[in-house]
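HUMAN: Would you supply a protein with fold tokens?

ASSISTANT:
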Amino acid sequence: MLPPLRHPLIEHGVVYGNWLLDSGRSEEAAEFAAAILATGPSGLGGETIAFIARCHVAGGHMDEARALIAPLAAGRVRRTAGLHDALARVLDALGDREGASIQRQLKSEAVAFTASVVARQAGEHERLRQEVEERRARSEPVRLHFGCGHTLIDGFINLDHAEGPGISTIPGIFQRHDFFVVALGPLPINANAVDYIFHEDFIEHVSQATQVSFLAECLRILKPGAVHRISTPDLRGDVGRYSQFEQGWAGVWNYEWDTWGHVSLFSPSSLADMAMMVGYAQVLLTEKNQSTSPFRCLEQRPLGDREASANIFADLIK
């Protein structure tokens, strides 16, 4: 039996639990659902409720699933970005009139939600552009921290694709003026404008195609000679160390993918190859907290989940 999950672990539990359901491992997914419910049902987001309802459907408990999603029709479920897709799978499984009615409501909401996301992203882009230009006008270093989550670094412009527990761009008690909700893509920043880019345990969560585009965009906005600092799990030192490849498929150590949802891992050589292909002048492999940039910060990762020797610490220099 898993202990109760607390924020921010609930989000990870939902992601992993849905993966278990997709893999046909419904009993293990039900354990995560129980651990989430042990925290108390109040304040759960729509994606979390949809995951728990999926568990009920997988177990044949259709009435329980309907009871969970019923508040949606009354507008009592707190909306989250992935709510519509998450609930669609539950409603398809239920396949009844109630489900069809909610599906129609969701489609209508999705149109309005998409419009609001586009409008907000435009606002965040403009706010980010102004922040960069103001720092440059004050002759302050422009330092970007991608994939910040709830770890905000003072003196940096902290960016992530969504708000996390305890931080927000919306005025209020958790508002941080150095935090920006910005999706990966072209940035509203002029070329040769940024002094330092940093991220840890971030780049392995996106596809190889996105990695190439992201490195290219970072290269564009960096000043000549500036550093793009990367901290990421080492495919060779992590998967390579613990796998027993002679056993074939069954011997591969899938911890990094299965536990943390990593998508595309680097080895030191593959990171260097990609960076040089994109156009970086030099790639320096260092130790933790040993960046060559004068604008570096204290690095937190990795923690207890892996050894520092199973991690890549690299300066990509423009």
User: Anything to note?
Assistant: The first helix runs from residue 9 to 22. The domain at 184-317 is CATH 3.40.50.150 (Rossmann fold). Confidence is low (pLDDT under 50) at residues 165-174. Strands lie at 143-146, 157-160, 179-181, 194-200, 222-233, 282-285, 311-317.
